[in-house]
Design a protein that fits this description.
Elements: E1 4-9, H1 13-23, E2 30-36, H2 41-47, E3 53-54, H3 57-63, E4 68-71, H4 78-87, E5 91-94, H5 102-112, E6 120-122, H6 130-140, E7 147-154, H7 161-164, H8 180-183, H9 186-196, E8 201-208, E9 217-225, E10 231-237, E11 245-251, E12 254-259, E13 262-268, H10 272-278, E14 288-294, H11 301-313, H12 326-342, E15 346-347, H13 352-364
């Protein structure tokens, strides 16, 4: 089988990792065939001497004899580069988030319509984590029963000031499109909707620059409501250390807690609603049976998604993370930000054009100056 020739746009932290993975053969059947970055080409050749380099993505798409491309650039460029790559006939994988706002995500997804033979994937690597796969499967097969509530405290995304100073686009409305919700937490926002679906309304409190000298949000607490009665609380920040990553799910048939590499399922011997109406003991509660799972790994993560992208192009697997699904995490992040900025509850689906206007105002009023 002919090796899949993959081009890579962006040679920052993530792009360099993808380049190394491809060069080291960690995605069988694929090879690194081209690199594009807006740095000096001589520097690019020093780091990757055996790989052709370009400083213009369109030229690489046209001249590189590529089958596929990975886009690992700052957030605001994901959409124009993704559209250009799709229009060039390439298979595309784009880093998270697929766009900085919902309207842009819609434009990117629309560019794939009519091009279904081109594989279009997003880098939602945490979908390979067996802990969250366990939850999704137990919701789907009815093991947990109706979900009443989910709480996710995800505060182990700590970042120092040096992180935000490392790139002019970081922590800016113009580049990042937001802070923790658009940079770190697209992973958890994607997993949230992947497991629980999309809520009908959101009320969030977003603190801009609470812990850092930045203009975007670095501390968020959000309340989510669902049409079926489920509720959720989502808490995240880049300003706490040591942080916490704890997901707790209260369901009809028991409670699930994921923390660290451990999963605990306290299963009710009688469903909550059934026990409530049948018991004659006023202070009683259903008995529980504890099931514990310990996961030695968190899955293949980035390599797993990369391997799946290659296998999907070769017709051997279905995509784990179709790019079209990336709009959901963007919408959740946008809705939380809009709620915090306007001090209002936001109904979903989000008005994409209204949020785009809000973001443009933030960009225009930005006073951010970085070296």
């Amino acid at each position: 089988m002919t090796a899949l020739r993959i081009g890579l746009v962006g040679i920052g932290n993530m792009g360099s990792m993808y380049a190394r993975n491809l060069l080291e053969g960690k995605a069988p059947g694929a090879e690194l065939a081209g690199l594009c970055c807006n740095i000096n080409l001589d520097r690019l050749k020093t780091s990757f001497p055996d790989t052709p380099g370009w400083n213009n993505a369109g030229m690489m798409f046209a001249e590189g004899n590529l089958h596929a491309v990975i886009i690992a650039t700052p957030h605001d460029s994901h959409v124009p580069l993704g559209i250009a790559a799709l229009e060039a006939g390439l298979h595309v994988m784009v880093e998270k988030p697929i766009a900085v706002h919902k309207a842009a995500a819609e434009r990117l997804i629309a560019a794939h319509q009519g091009r279904e033979t081109q594989v279009f994937s997003a880098m939602f690597n945490q979908r390979t984590d067996p802990r969250y796969q366990w939850v999704r499967a137990r919701i789907a097969d009815g093991t947990l029963g109706r979900i009443h509530r989910a709480n996710w405290i995800i505060t182990d995304w700590f970042r120092p000031e040096a992180y935000y100073a490392s790139g002019s686009w970081r922590a800016s409305w113009a580049g990042d499109g937001g802070g923790v919700l658009l940079n770190q937490c697209p992973h958890q926002l994607d997993l949230w909707q992947w497991m629980f679906g999309m809520p009908s309304r959101i009320r969030a409190f977003c603190h801009l620059g609470r812990f850092h000298d930045i203009e975007v949000e670095d501390d968020v607490t959000a309340y989510l409501e669902y049409e079926n009665g489920m509720s959720g609380v989502f808490i995240t920040t880049t300003g706490e250390a040591p942080g916490t990553n704890r997901l707790e799910i209260a369901a009809e048939n028991g409670r699930v807690v994921i923390e660290g590499k451990n999963l605990c399922f306290d299963r009710n011997t009688v469903p909550v609603s059934k026990f409530s109406v049948e018991t004659d003991k006023p202070f009683s509660a259903p008995e529980t049976e504890r099931q514990t799972e310990h996961f030695e790994t968190i899955g293949e993560q980035h390599i797993g998604i990369l391997k799946n992208f290659v296998a999907a192009i070769q017709g051997r697997e279905k995509l784990i993370a179709p790019a079209a699904e990336g709009i959901h995490s963007v919408e959740l992040g946008n809705a939380m930000l809009l709620s915090g900025l306007t001090d209002k509850t936001i109904d979903l689906p989000l008005d994409a054009k209204a949020y785009e206007k809000q973001l443009k105002k933030l960009i225009e009023s930005s006073t951010l100056k970085k070296k």
